[in-house]
Write the structure tokens for this entry.
Amino acid sequence: MVCRVKSAIFPVAGLGTRFLPVTKSIPKEMISLVDRPLIQHAVEEALAAGIERIVFVTAPGKVTLEAHFQASPELENTLAARGNGAALEVLRATTLPRGAVACVSQPRPLGLGHAVLCARELAGDGPVAVLLPDDVIEAATPCIGQMVEAHAECGGTVLATMRLPRTQISSYGVIDPSDTPAGAEDGRLVAVRGLVEKPAAQDAPSDLAVIGRYILAPSIFGHLARQRPGAGGEIQLTDAIASAAAGGEPVFGFCFEGRRFDCGSRVGFVEATVAFAMQRPEMRDRLGTFLRHEMARLETTVLAAE
Ligand code: G1P
């Protein structure tokens, strides 16, 4: 029987240099899409999939994200005294049970694979999910939930994947699909025989990019511990998964259903902000009107300049 996924690792030790100066004092994962920090989107996705244990891998000296998920009795009392039930509800929804959240520090920035390895002792014995909060996925069933369901059928290691244009592929881990069919699962699963981290476009084995959601077999920690630095001189998670596949362990790409936003880039972050704001009934009309006017204004300016 396939073991249930109970723990999720959130690597959040990055410096967020692309988002300076805001990341000078605020961890990138605490920047908000409308009013919810990126990390909250990812944590809620994991909880909705039945994951019970949250492990943050942070950088030394970085403001801990744990505080965001702890109870804040003083603020709660103030809101209760003011009769502000709506705000109180929003606040309480961020509180996770004691013991559900653990934090570990990644002493040096040695790469994503090394960050995941740092969480080894806290992750438990079974399969473990990894969520990269930079990848925000809007879906009817949250992406990691879709993957947990697929994993219950196929076991092994499951990687979120999507097809990307060749011009973008060199920023991602890329799947080398096997010729063997992966089985049913509505054709969403692809058997993986290899993986390459950030290949040059002409060397990419396919157009299937790995997106920041993983379910990893427990053997991953052994592969990571043996891993030598790869692309960018870092210990790469992709390389450790490639070692597992090369050793005959089952690895699958999973073509998830949903819309992915690349919140690791500034423009992707703004796109996600607009998309999430447009889903709020209280904002939709005004923002829609603003965007239409803004587009019209832009076209007039561009036309005038030509
Ligand atoms: C990381 C992984 C890469 C994956 C990507 C998904 O890269 O190393 O394999 O495709 O996340 O967003 P990063 O974006 O941290 O450079």
Q: What stands out?
A: The radius of gyration is 21 Å. Residues 112, 132, 135, 172-173, 197, 209-212, 237-238, 264 surround 1-O-phosphono-alpha-D-glucopyranose (CB under 6 Å). The longest helix spans residues 281-305.
